[in-house]
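Need a sequence for this fold. Nothing fancy.
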């Protein structure tokens, strides 16, 4: 149990470091290193053992690493991809997306069970936004705004199953 927790915390810290390195690379305008660091965070997240509800420290570090790597990094990539003189709308979209990620992670860390837990994961939403920021974002601010808002809604609101 202790060994599994150490492994989980180690993976989470590595994911967090990959996210921080990706943010630094974004602000140094080195897209290749930013994408490599982000990709490393995605790969580490895929192989990371899931923390249980009893492992509060592991769960908290995992949520922090997801918020930084999959919530903040794609937002910074989006901001650097668009680079408009009046970028207030972009900052609002980034804030909404990061807030949606934080809400979903907080809901996931709650102790009481939820009847509906089918939501888009923060990792999936962040990965989609990062790819969008690298490929499409510079072409249309309206399409970008709609895409970010749609991703935010999919992350926060559950998809209900039909009975």
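Here you go.
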């Amino acid at each position: 149990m202790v060994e599994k927790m150490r492994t989980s915390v180690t993976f989470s810290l590595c994911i967090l470091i990959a996210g921080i390195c990706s943010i630094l690379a974004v602000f140094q305008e080195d897209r290749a290193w930013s994408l490599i660091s982000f990709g490393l965070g995605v790969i580490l997240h895929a192989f990371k053992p899931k923390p249980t509800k009893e492992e509060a420290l592991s769960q908290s570090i995992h949520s922090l690493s997801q918020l930084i790597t999959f919530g903040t990094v794609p937002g910074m990539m989006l901001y650097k991809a668009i680079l408009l003189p009046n970028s207030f709308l972009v900052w609002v979209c980034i804030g909404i997306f990061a807030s949606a990620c934080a809400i979903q992670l907080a809901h996931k860390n709650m102790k009481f069970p939820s009847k509906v837990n089918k939501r888009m994961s923060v990792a999936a939403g962040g990965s989609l936004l990062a790819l969008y920021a690298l490929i499409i974002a510079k072409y249309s601010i309206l399409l970008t705004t709609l895409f970010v808002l749609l991703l935010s809604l999919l992350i926060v609101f559950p998809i209900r199953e039909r009975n």
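For context: The two ends are 37 Å apart (CA to CA).
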